[in-house]
Amino acid sequence: MTDLGTNPGVAVVTGASSGIGAAFADRLARRGHDLLLVARRGDRLSTLAAQLQAETGVGVETLVADLGRADDLARLEARIADIPVSFLVNNAGVGALGPTSSVPAGAQEALIRINVVALTRLSIAAVARFSAAGRGTLINIASVMALMPSAGGGAYSGSKAYVLNFTRSLRLELGGSGIGVHVVLPGPVRTEFFSSQGLSDSVFPDSAYVSAEALADAALAGAALGEEVITPSLASADHWRDLEAARGAYMRDVMSGEIAARYRPG
Ligand SMILES: NC(=O)c1ccc[n+]([C@@H]2O[C@H](COP(=O)([O-])OP(=O)(O)OC[C@H]3O[C@@H](n4cnc5c(N)ncnc54)[C@H](OP(=O)(O)O)[C@@H]3O)[C@@H](O)[C@H]2O)c1
Questions:
Q1: Which residue in 9, 107, 159, 190 has the most C-beta neighbors within 10 A?
Q2: CATH code of 211's domain
Q3: CA of 30 to the centre of ligand 1 (A)
Q4: Residue 51 — left, alpha, or beta (φ > 0 → left; ψ -120 to 50 → alpha)?
Q5: Is residue 145 part of a domain?
């Protein structure tokens, strides 16, 4: 492994072997972060590591890990505890797309282990490092599907709703600590996400896609602005404000202490 410097600290990127994760790795290296890149495909990680080292001069460590496996996850947690991590992008994720009754239960459980359990444990591990150092940034990659039920993506949409609420809750807890906590809701991004699951990109119109590089740049810009929920392709921020206002009204209403009239007997 290359010697990891301490300033501006090490950025850990999960799912760095392709798509959005590889784009984050590129951008963070160009900002001077040493990197710890994680995924299962070690050959891809090594190629990217060599390229980024040559182009930017930062130190890049790779860790081949299946984040659905408890032992691999524990190895990564231990590594995070050992090095001066200042940035974590929890990006690794899978879709297990298809009708809930057709997709094998094991594949849906594996999705929960990767999209939910690993993301949670790694967030906890990183925040422990950030708290000790008094600085750090956590970016968790959810999806616009966090806000939408999805026939053919039940476990996926559920897992991303978890990422959204988990990350927002963590941010509430860490308010004023100097630690940045952000969640990104990408719409369609041109990556291997669909093809790796045997699906075609034409599930969405061509015009709906952004590139992984544009997505990573927008997410980093949103984090620099201090945004809590970053939706890179949402043209009108008013739509998010409207959603939040509706959520506030809903919450005030459910605190009435009374059962709504339509549910009362008789
Ligand atoms: N593409 C989109 O339209 C879109 C939209 C919204 C949100 N997202 C989210 O963006 C994130 C990145 O996806 P992407 O679009 O960049 O797709 P991608 O190109 O398929 O990348 C997925 C990454 O996750 C890694 N990964 C998958 N299973 C893993 C495991 N068990 N252990 C460790 N790493 C694993 C993959 O690496 P290995 O296969 O080498 O392990 C790969 O690097 C995901 O969380 C996805 O849900 C994507």
A1: 159
A2: 3.40.50.720
A3: 22
A4: alpha
A5: yes
Range of the domain at 50: 10-237
| CA–CA gap between residue 247 and residue 266 (Å, rounded) | 30
Q: Average the pLDDT over 174-179 and give the result.
A: 95
Mutate to test the pocket of ligand 1, among 40, 117, 144 (most ligand atoms within 8 A of CB): 40
Q: What percent of the chain has pLDDT over 70?
A: 98
Q: How far is CA 26 from each of CA 22, 109, 190, 216, 220, rounded to the nearest angstrom?
A: 6, 31, 16, 9, 12
Residue 254 lies in a domain: no
Q: Which atom of ligand 1 is nearest to the CA of 20?
A: 16
Flag whether 1 is in a domain: no
259: in domain: no
DSSP label at residue 2: P
CA 143 to chain centre: 8
Expressed in angstroms and rounded, the spacing between residue 257 Cα and the centre of ligand 1 is 43
Cβ(73) – ligand 1 distance below 6 Å: no
Q: Which amino acids are annotated catalytic?
A: 156
Report the number of distinct structural domains present in the chain: 1
Tell me the whole-structure pTM to 2 decimals.
0.96
> Sign of dihedral through CA atoms 197, 198, 201, 203?
negative
Query: Of all atoms in ligand 1, which is nearest to the CA of residue 144?
Result: 6
